[in-house]
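Hey everyone, long-time lurker, first post.

I ran two proteins through the pipeline my lab uses and got sequence/structure pairs for each. Pasting them in order. The first:
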Amino acid sequence: MNQRVLSGIQPTGDSMQLGNYLGAVKNWVAMQDGYDAYYCVVDLHAITLDPPEPEALRQRTRIVAAQLLAAGLDPDRCALFVQSHVPEHPQLSWVLECLTGFGEASRMTQFKDKSARSGADRQSVGLFTYPILQAADILLYQAHQVPIGEDQRQHLELTRNLAQRFNAKYGQTFVIPDAYIPTAAAKVLDLQDPTAKMSKSRPDNGTVYLSDDPAAITRKIKRAVTDTENEIRYDPEAKPGLSNLIGILASLTGAEPAAVAKEFDGQGYGGLKAAVADAVVAFAEPFTERTRELLDDPAELDRILARGADKARSVASATVAAAYRNVGFLAPVVG
């Protein structure tokens, strides 16, 4: 049997951005064939900070699910589901919270950083405990591998610690997950500030959204910050802006960054930017059309998500039943 992989994405905006796709989702698509893959729209996490209006959250959840399907996730090859459709997530999270030390939770990066900026009293309990819910997300599915970026290593280490702690106290219950960091994963940088990752939280002129129209995509890429030289070479340290564009084109075409740089040697930055824009538009246009088709058929989208939730619950319910039994909770009498 293939190893199991679990990953999730928050419905925090009205569109996936290019960095989400190239840095994570493109690899999720590839992993469907070699792994027993579970992918989750983590709507419970989306209310941790500045909860959106209810209708906005529902719409964003539908959008990100549709975009994941448009990007290549296949319901016949993976389980795609919405986190809140599987009630075992918070059920397991409570047990794990009771095994987590206060100091341990307070050292998690996001809570620590937010507290340092605006005070712990202004943060929600949800922000404090969300890494534990994230641990539950992973352990529920007995995941062997978790695709993460380097910035998520701390959270995965907490997950591993909690699994080991539970197993030591209550007996073997959880698989201890390992990080899966694909060597081919692209780290896409902000087009206007190539010292920072491309992000929805940054200004729009440095972020390419896959729902942007072709003119907007082209404009953003052609205005991307590079440097005052005119030499095309892949050198992320010395030429981060230019190397970011080379990396984007390489990831979209399946080429090596060095090969892309060699191809455009002597052509100037304008020619490279035009090629990057064309490649992004060539991906984004059919992606947007497929997303629109899925959103225009909500019954079919709901059917896909319900099917994914059924598959997810078949695993999650067994895990929670085993964890509850091992903790010593009295099993309910059925009938």
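...and the second, right after it:
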Amino acid sequence: MSALLELLHDQPAFFTATFTVFGLLVGSFLNVVIHRLPKMMEAEWARQHAESAGEEVAPAAKYNLIVPRSACPYCGHQINALENIPVLSYIALGGKCSGCKAPISPRYPLVEALTGVLSGLIAWHFGFSGAAFAALLFTFALIALTFIDFDTFLLPDDITLPLLWGGLLFNLGGGFTDLHSAVVGAVAGYLALWSIYWLFKLATGKEGMGYGDFKLLAAIGAWFGWQLLPAVILLSSLAGSVIGIALIVVARHGRNVPIPFGPYLALGGIAALFWGPLLARFYLPGY
């Protein structure tokens, strides 16, 4: 083990390659999280509703992030190990189920490739350090939240709250920022979007975003401190505006059809991860 750690420390190219491969494998698991966690939440809500109404709840089949094994949604063919190699299996199968030849969503290899690429960039940017491993966990959480929000307009507490506490714990030792800035960042991140939410609701009678967005920005503030919040909010808003306008103009996306904000907050969080100090110096010269 010590020899491996020494090799990872002394050989940046090997460390980057290792992180990339690890990211590809985790990306495959994140696809499971993205697909199953919302379904698990819906089942739990249904169970709680039934119990509160005094209804008898029948025992449900075991369903979590591990059980049952992944299978084709069309024919039920269980995916074996050779069919579950990140990216390569999708290419080898021609993007189709080996059992019934139904198309496999290209988003599966996209999530795997995105996770692998970002993991490699983290290794290259931070080197062999605690910051690299912490950044890896932060990024995995953002990827899962991004695609869950795209699918369901949900940012699960099961991810956002551990992400927030993880940022505070990492900064106990002055990870990406000092603990004082991290705590203020968490509070300010939550209150910033909470205030916008209520101003918008009072002005229009409509809800412009969900509480999950408040918690996600609070988590980003906990990781990088209050100093990065203006940059994250600005970048997220710009990205959301540009993409929203493009969807309306190009894809005929209805103006009244909601667009999730979580993915754009995640983009801002990734920008803060890689270029935080540089971004902050635009408005905090002494940072």
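Reply from user beta_strand_b:
Welcome! Quick read of the second one: The CA atoms of residues 6 and 272 lie 29 Å apart. The chain has ten helices and no strands.
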